[in-house]
Amino acid sequence: MKIVVAGKGGVGKTTVSGTVARALAQAGHRVLALDADTNPMLGVSLGVGPEQTDLLTAVREGLATGETEHERSTEGFVDRFGTDAPDGIRLVVASRIDQPNPGCTCCGVSAEQLLGELEGTDQIVVGDLEAGIGTVLRLQPGQADVVVVVAQPTAKSLEVARRALEAAPERAPRVIVVANRVRDDEDLATIHAALGENHEYVIVPDEPAIAEADRDGRAAIDVDPDAPGVRALVDLADRLAGIGAPA
Length: 247
Hints:
Blueprint: E1 2-6, H1 13-26, E2 31-35, H2 42-46, H3 50-65, H4 74-80, E3 82-84, E4 90-93, H5 105-108, H6 111-117, E5 124-128, H7 134-138, E6 146-151, H8 155-167, E7 174-182, H9 185-195, E8 200-205, H10 208-216, H11 220-223, H12 228-240
Parallel strand pairs: 1-5, 1-6, 2-4, 2-5, 6-7, 7-8
Antiparallel strand pairs: 3-4
Helix pairs in contact: 1-12
């Protein structure tokens, strides 16, 4: 199964990606976490830590300067540009580089192409996409099984989410909305008014434990796995894995 997480920058999609990936791995699934954001920080949300996350980014950026050797196979790509994360997760940085060689897998590959090449693997792929809807628009059928759209109750976030929700159904058989940082019924009503109520929703309350994790550079699931906001994302992972039925 391939799950991609989209949304405006700053809405919490990386936290959603990292927490869902950790929860899936803790439930016994083999997980590949794909960081395709132009500001790759998924390692922090997975619990790898800021230093190792920066190191992975530097190795990736080394392709543009010649400091990193190129890799032409998908398997080699996962090995060379990845690291082991908690709970047995493999984290791979696949962000864009400034001087790509289109004929080289590690340079020219896009997030959507890599997702397509991972077809048929015995693992769950969780992809943290670049901010906005560019990658969602480029997805082809079969490159993702689930698109998770993260939104918070602000005008800019909801506009990006609305556009993502328009595009996603043609590209993946299942679409889920994560209503993030919901403080009260008014926030939820704002999200429903902008996006409609006929989507599969997961409501994540405004969560101090997640804010603490962001501040300290830790994984939210390590800070407080029983916090309501974290539990909502663990429940989402259960739902995605088929443990829980869609709402």
